[in-house]
Design a protein that fits this description.
The protein is an alpha+beta fold. The protein is built from two helices and four strands; from the N terminus they run αββββα. A four-stranded antiparallel sheet has the order 3-2-1-4.
């Protein structure tokens, strides 16, 4: 949630980015992949950023163009937008918070 604060406090920029490679590591014996993309920020400087999410397969493929978002002034925090993932994540957190509050206050 802390990584989302700059997105809430600053205007969000969109930019095209090219997938240049995937960083691979192993978790529980299975490979997971993290896409690395390159894009030009608002000043025209090319920046290479590693996405925050790991995937069980190398997707998007190397050379593919994707749209990324980043908070204005913080291009190093760029990421590939996953709106369904973020909606589910915050929905589950909100549900857990409401259920906890109901349990504490005795409404449940």
């Amino acid at each position: 949630m802390r990584s989302d604060l700059p997105f809430l406090r600053n205007p969000v920029r969109r930019a095209p980015a090219k997938i240049v490679r995937h960083d691979r590591r192993y978790e529980d014996g299975a490979p997971v992949y993290q896409p690395v993309f390159r894009f030009a920020d608002e000043h025209g400087t090319f920046i290479e950023v590693r996405d925050k999410l790991y995937m069980p397969f190398p997707k998007p493929v190397i050379g593919e163009m994707v749209e990324i978002i980043y908070p204005e002034g913080y291009p190093q925090q760029a990421r590939i937008p996953y709106p369904v993932f973020r909606t589910l994540l915050y929905g589950l957190l909100g549900y857990a918070f409401v259920m906890l509050a109901m349990e504490i206050t005795g409404w449940w």
